[in-house]
Design goal:
The complex is a heterodimer.
Chain A (H helix, E strand, L loop, with lengths): L6 H26 L3 H18 L9 H20 L8 H13 L4 H13 L3 H11 L5 H8 L3 H36 L1
Helix pairs in contact in A: 1-2, 1-3, 2-3, 5-8, 6-8
Chain B lengths: L2 H17 L4 H13 L1 H19 L91 E5 L4 E3 L22 E2 L2 E7 L2 E5 L4 E4 L3 E7 L2 E12 L8 E4 L2 E5 L3 E6 L5 E7 L1 E5 L8 E4 L3 E4 L7 E2 L8 H11 L4 E5 L11 E4 L15 E2 L1 E11 L12 E5 L25 E5 L2 E14 L4 E11 L12 H6 L5 E7 L9 E6 L4 E4 L5 E3 L10 E9 L6 E8 L14 E2 L8 E11 L3 E9 L14
Parallel strand pairs in B: 8-9, 18-21
Antiparallel strand pairs in B: 1-3, 1-5, 2-4, 4-7, 5-6, 6-8, 7-8, 8-11, 9-10, 10-13, 11-12, 12-15, 13-14, 15-16, 17-19, 17-33, 20-23, 21-22, 22-33, 23-32, 24-29, 24-33, 25-26, 25-32, 26-27, 27-28, 29-30, 30-31
Helix pairs in contact in B: 1-2, 1-3, 2-3
The chains are: A mainly alpha, B mainly beta.
Chain lengths: ~190, ~600
């Protein structure tokens, strides 16, 4: 059983663990709630709950699954209370996706790092496209009107950007794995 | 379906899901495909990862960066200017004077217009007759709509008894008098105190004690007796006051009117132009301009005389009314005495300018427990990115060594000003605290919320501007918001006041209900939010917000034009949590959160009174 922690220790522990896992935790929530705004809201709520529950956390165990447990409950809570107005997956699929996400959690951090690099390497016009598509308060429809491009064209371009990023990630991970293998062989 | 075909189909459907163009049938198809194949689930998860990564990289800096407000020498550039023509309308840094005294230019006609037609001016008959629709007491049922709003009435005593054959301006069945009360055509008799009434046309009147006014329409009223100061913005030109001896039509101005019980009338023009008609004294209308006045004696013996101009301006009158009783603040956080834990740092910030002045009095009240900092959540693009950080920064006196250094023109920091404010570094930051007095949507009340926000722009010379690559790395979704939620029903109805990367202020109500402003605020300067939350037990609720830029005059009384507002909604929520959230690619600043019972009570220039 854990010794009771001082509030300061508690806070520092929380910050350390939370910052180590925040990206993966957000990715976990986002995979259950495809709508980004919903995921942001639940992520915010989870951070509050995790902070409040940190004294319950067994430090001998891994933080991420514990945090995902809290997040999973909160996703369910969110869907029950406020998700009615949007299309949502049913409980069975959310449960499946949750398990799958946890099973593949080990390489999630690496994948996210690779993804960020790939996004940074997008050509300028594609960046503008992404910005327009995700600019809050302005939709792709607005961007289509403003730019004079057809909405269908923009949707297709967004799809292509996602494909390019997907390929980029696989390529980077492949290179990374080869480097590890080569380093292993060299040693 | 082959594996590759199924994967391609999932890709198409996920595209539609992310573009929010997916149909219910397609959503069901996606769900079925995913349920049946773990490989497709992995593929789906990777597609969502990509979308998240792209969102992290959201760029918002479409607008030109604003020059630093602090020069390398440390000179504050918050220059107050009485002359707004000096402001840089070409897109550069403006003069930063929030000139409350300029209310005279900002009482604008707005969104509260009721569908009520003004009377036909040609039908006016100052003397009145039995057939005159404007004859006292002859108001028709058609006119039983709100024509004006009681804006300020603290310390006032009213005679609300109905006179024989007369209608009262007060809403039927309403026993209490409170600010924001809609007034209908009828008699309004003030016995003591100073009240401010704004007509729906935009004209505003400060009523002195012992005043008897009969509201006729949104652009017309009859003065039985009393003294008042009238302000008429351009939008309300033509606003007319009838007196026992004539009528005074405003041409966009301020004037003072004094009507004795005998009928004797004095008109003093404080600014602009007035058209006075006193048919029993003169067949001609008389135009009075600034500095001119006129006196008309008792009915039947009228003579037009010039008398010395007297009377305080409308603004002065309103100031006096506010000074008497500005309403109370029920929740306050100045951040001056915040004791942050752990990485919430506190210290001098020689490069910073306070967002407000330090004032005497309490620095924080109305809270239950302490601020909680659930974490500084950063989703930076690179491992080397700094973690989001909330700092309580203290502005030294040197930073704001004169009133001219202050962003809000009428604020006057004392010499030993030590005002603190919150500084959110890039990343995600969150603070949460429980309020003693919740926002209770089951009760009949109006609450006003104000705070100051600012994104970027306080970078010092010691912090060189980031390189382009760094800027790109650090671009994440920007949002700075105050949300009121319920502990018992966290995901239930809420009120969220959000300034997002789009630059459009937005009011959210939870459950995906949000109302964005049509206007965008793209400059990096400070913004003052003033929000009105109207809760009604048995009626619909509503929220309005007015956002002021630094060089914009602040209304002394509630404005007629709002930056954004919700539609009517029904709620019985009890919101007892205040949450401040700051996330984004650049520093953000937050200061002085107030919740009060009146519009002036939450204005930065008004001392905090509990």
């Amino acid at each position: 059983m854990n010794e009771p922690m001082e509030p300061t220790d508690c806070y520092e522990l929380f910050l350390q663990l939370f910052n180590q896992n925040r990206s993966r935790l957000f990715a976990y929530i986002r995979s259950l709630l495809p709508n980004n705004a919903d995921a942001e809201d639940v992520f915010q709520r989870c951070s509050v709950l995790l902070w409040r529950k940190i004294h319950q956390f067994d430090q001998q165990r891994d933080f991420f699954p514990w945090a995902c447990g809290v997040a999973y409950y909160e996703v369910q809570n969110f869907l029950r209370v406020s998700g009615r107005s949007r299309l949502q997956f049913d409980d069975a699929l959310i449960n499946q996706l949750s398990e799958r996400r946890l099973e593949t959690a080990d390489d999630l951090g690496t994948r996210l790092d690779a993804l960020r690099l790939c996004v940074q390497q997008l050509p300028g016009h594609d960046r503008s496209m992404v910005e327009a598509a995700y600019h809050e308060g302005e939709t792709l429809v607005d961007y289509a009107k403003r730019s004079g491009r057809s909405l269908r064209t923009l949707y297709n371009r967004m799809s292509l950007i996602r494909r390019q990023l997907s390929s980029c990630v696989e390529r980077k991970l492949s290179v990374s794995e080869n480097q590890v293998i080569n380093q292993g062989a060299a040693s | 379906m082959s594996d590759s075909a199924a994967q391609e189909r999932v890709r198409q459907l996920v595209d539609r899901l992310l573009d929010e163009t997916i149909t219910p049938e397609q959503h069901q198809e996606l769900q079925s495909l995913l349920k049946a194949d773990q490989g497709l689930q992995d593929f789906y998860l990777r597609q969502i990862e990509i979308d998240s990564a792209m969102r992290e990289c959201l760029s918002l800096a479409q607008s030109d960066p604003e020059p630093p407000l602090i020069s390398p020498r440390g000179d504050a550039k918050w220059m107050q200017s009485e002359d707004h023509s000096e402001s840089d309308s070409a897109g550069g840094r403006p003069t930063l004077a929030w000139t409350i005294a300029a209310i005279a230019t900002s009482l604008l006609i707005g969104m509260w217009l009721f569908s009520f037609d003004d009377e036909n001016p040609g039908a006016r008959n100052p003397g009145g007759s039995a057939s005159d629709p404007l004859q006292p007491g002859a108001l028709s049922q058609r006119q039983a709509v709100s024509v004006a709003t009681l804006m300020m009435s603290e310390g006032c005593r009213w005679d609300r008894r109905a006179l024989p054959g007369q209608r009262s301006a007060w809403p039927t069945g309403q026993t209490s008098v409170r600010n924001g009360t809609p007034l209908q055509p009828g008699r309004l008799r003030l016995l003591e105190g100073t009240a401010v009434v704004r007509f729906q046309s935009g004209a505003a009147v400060v009523l002195d004690q012992n005043c008897d006014l009969e509201l006729v329409s949104r652009g017309l009223a009859r003065v039985h007796h009393g003294q008042m100061t009238v302000h008429v913005p351009d939008e309300a030109i033509g606003f007319t006051l009838l007196t026992p001896t004539g009528e005074v039509e405003d041409r966009g101005t301020e004037f003072r009117l004094d009507v004795k019980s005998s009928g004797a009338t004095e008109v003093h023009v404080l600014d602009g132009e007035v058209l006075a008609r006193f048919p029993q004294a003169s067949a001609d209308s008389k135009t009075l301009v600034k500095g001119q006045s006129i006196r008309v004696d008792t009915v039947g013996l009228s003579t037009v005389n010039s008398v010395p101009v007297k009377g305080e301006s409308f603004v002065d009158q309103v100031h006096q009314a506010i000074d008497q009783d500005p309403g109370s603040v029920v929740l306050y956080e100045s951040f001056d005495t915040l004791r942050p834990p752990a990485d919430i740092s506190q210290g001098a910030a020689p490069d910073a300018v306070s967002l407000r002045s330090k004032k005497s009095g309490p620095s924080s009240f109305g809270w239950s427990g302490q601020w909680q900092y659930p974490g500084n959540m950063h989703n930076g693009l690179a491992k080397t990115s700094t973690i989001g950080k909330i700092e309580v920064r203290r502005a030294d006196a040197a930073d704001s060594n004169s009133s001219r250094a202050h962003p809000f023109g009428t604020l006057h920091p004392s010499d030993d000003a030590k005002a603190s404010y919150l500084r959110f570094s890039q990343g995600r930051n969150l603070m949460i605290r429980e309020m003693v007095r919740p926002i209770d949507f089951r009760s009949d009340q109006e609450l006003f919320v104000s705070f100051v926000i600012r994104r970027g722009g306080l970078a010092s010379a010691a912090s060189p501007p980031p390189q382009e690559d760094d800027v790109w790395k650090k671009k994440i979704h920007e949002s700075l918001r105050v949300t009121f939620r319920s502990q018992d029903n966290y995901w239930g109805p809420s009120v969220s006041l959000n300034f997002s990367s789009s630059g459009r202020p937005l009011i959210g109500l939870g459950n995906n209900d949000s109302f964005a402003s049509a206007a965008r605020f793209v400059r990096n300067g400070p913004l003052l939010w003033v929000t009105k939350i109207q809760t009604r037990d048995q009626q619909s609720d509503k929220v309005w917000a007015r956002v002021y830029e630094a060089d914009e005059p602040i209304h002394l009384i509630e404005p007629t034009v709002w930056t954004c507002m919700t539609e009517d909604f029904w709620s019985d929520a009890i919101l007892d949590l205040a949450i401040i959230t700051g996330s984004g690619p650049q520093e953000q600043f937050f200061d002085e959160l107030r919740v009060g019972t009146s519009w002036p009570s939450v204005l930065p220039s008004i001392p905090v009174r509990q």
